[in-house]
């Protein structure tokens, strides 16, 4: 009855996160790799203040318990005071002053995070269940689940969601912003250290939320100038497979039969298939035109049996250019 | 000092033989159709304990799965359902109703010197609404489960093809249960106080339940409306939250947190009430700053309506909204700090009895200090941007919801257990269990603070390998915690069959709940009590009652 809940042993190892350069055995925070050092300053200041109050509370409690423990059943309290105005004023006013300082400091920091500097490079990050697509400043290229940034150069992102809520989160950069469908949000930061970093999706977005991950490569100006995101293999099938792995693998299988989540691509090309179009059932043959439509506008014809399955969001030019679409079709053709 | 013993005969149990609320009638209908607040409280206690056990099992499954970075047990879909079930069961079926509906129902009328709550039939209705909500939650599991997280964020909750409507209906109905209980307690507190029991002579548990009830009545309708809108949106595609239809998912977040932030205080204020009682009785000392504690409950209740936006600092609110929400959030910190300091000052120079309810109370004071202080860190705008939606937040709210609220619930359970059943559990086992729970709890959640501030996002079925040591430590902690809780339920249940007789006034309390016979008879008091003295005046304590076993 519950067997379907468990992983099957033949499922491949999925640990694919990079080794983040930020890992450090001792810090409470990941080491900082951007200019937002005020986050760390306020964090550590507040943390030590909290440690101080905690130790104070624990010490008074511990001492009281040792000193005033009831040893006779009729032992009355050592004191019955219920008020001490100076003390009460002190423990109201001092925390109030402290939290106001922290508040103002944090607020100032958040203003710094709100507006990108003029000379920032503009990027666009498109979030979809469960992938990140990046487009670069004044550049026709794009990259999937991998992002290249130049060190010490402010990077400003427009965040766009194709389906549900996601969140753009790079722990080492101290930045996070929800990606809200229908509202384009902005975020910026300046990477200051070379290396590879995690970009997580921090807002729950369904099945593969935890695999919605991109590697951030912070590189030198020289490496950045070589446009490392623009790589294409001479074999179209290989390019198609790459796109598949980044964008489609979380739902579609390429071997074996259809799954509960989505139809399998194995033997798909040229097959005749029952689909629902505008509420009517009909039979089509899978050809290039059908595949293009299935990707650009999936709800036009829905494969029979998937009417109530989770939806496939349309993939537009921004995520899958026509060129890439051609590669995917070549890849699907090869799956026999 | 003169004695102000209220007009209550502590030993009057003697001339009525042994009839009490537990044995005055019997048979299934005498329970299922009862209007007695104590029996209803007891039925709630059984219900919420079962919900807690179910939620706890889901929690252990989550922790076991996270033993390895690829996920040790489940598929990602199944994992998402299990963490959702854990959250939904714990929040809606356990933490929100636990203290007010079980212990509150049991003790509030006793503390007021009343025969029952003001509206006993409504009280029974609340209970059956709770049962209906719980049944719908179970049905939703059988109908395929749901994977939205307990927060039901749109638009995911609109698109996922799972049993969202039935659980939504369940939450809607549970909301009514909560509203009716709140109404009932407000009316009871206003109308049924014993003669002489003025507002500032009420025990602080009553104040806490009163403040909670106000929140329940005012905030819960918003939750009902929100889940109803989600259901309508799913069925009729109106376009309120769905961006494809021109709706706004951020609006959902506003609605949701407008309820769910005050809900945090619906959950935690009753816990404060229990702690106030336990700190005073087991230190045999009047509460330090009684009025400050009472007013801070009300202050928290009011301010808590104005801070919901602190759950949405990364959602793209205007910077001015962020300013206001962060500023007000720090204002909640002040009354909360006052409470903590006042409790500590009460313990200081008390006559401290280190019995099990007091140990749970001390554990609460430590854990709540951590939960509250980390809340201050999260309220800072720029820091929250980094910490939001990571395990740091998970650890913080578990320190508050599991560590503080459940520990206060356990403290209350141990405190009033002898009152409710006239028997005592095994104290040595109780102390041992408290220690195990305290250690297990911290072992579970301290690693989560560390990995959270290092960037581990929440609700992840799989994770990067560098977080594994923290996850494993947390899983081991959770197993220890689970053993402690199992031990606790074990000796509590055993005490019902083989427990020693409790004392009439086991701990030496001086509020009205300790002045009825133990266990209380059907209408609580043989004559209407008249209250003369101040509250928590231990000079009135009749020490014989702490040495006289129940008859
Ligand atoms: Cu996500
Ligand atoms: Cu809140």
Mean pLDDT of chain A: 87
Number of strands of chain B: 2
Helix content of chain A: 25-40%
Instruction: Indicate the overall shape of chain A.
Output: elongated
The radius of gyration over CA of chain B amounts to: 23 Å
- The CATH class of chain B, by name, is Mainly Alpha
Q: Specify the helix fraction band of chain B.
A: 55-70%
By oligomeric state, this entry counts as heterodimer
Number of separate helices of chain B: 15
Strand order, main sheet of chain B: write it out. 1-2
Specify which chain pair forms the largest interface. A-B, 100 and 96 residues
Which strand-content bin applies to the residues of chain B? under 5%
Bound molecules: copper (II) ion
Task: Please describe the topology of this protein.
The complex is a heterodimer of chains A (336) and B (551).
Chain A: H1 37-67, H2 85-114, E1 121-128, E2 131-135, E3 142-144, E4 146-150, E5 155-161, E6 166-170, E7 175-179, E8 185-189, E9 195-201, E10 213-219, H3 221-225, H4 236-248, E11 272-277, E12 280-285, H5 288-296, E13 302-303, H6 322-333
Parallel strand pairs in A: 1-5, 4-10
Antiparallel strand pairs in A: 1-2, 2-3, 5-8, 6-7, 6-9, 9-10, 11-12, 11-13
Helix pairs in contact in A: 1-2, 4-6
Chain B: H1 28-32, H2 37-65, H3 76-112, H4 120-142, H5 156-159, H6 164-191, H7 204-236, H8 249-283, H9 290-303, H10 319-347, H11 356-379, H12 381-387, H13 391-421, E1 423-424, H14 427-453, H15 468-498, E2 500-501
Antiparallel strand pairs in B: 1-2
Helix pairs in contact in B: 2-3, 2-4, 2-15, 3-4, 3-6, 3-7, 3-8, 3-13, 4-6, 6-7, 7-8, 7-9, 8-10, 8-11, 8-13, 9-10, 10-11, 11-13, 11-14, 13-14, 14-15
Bound molecules: copper (II) ion (2 copies).
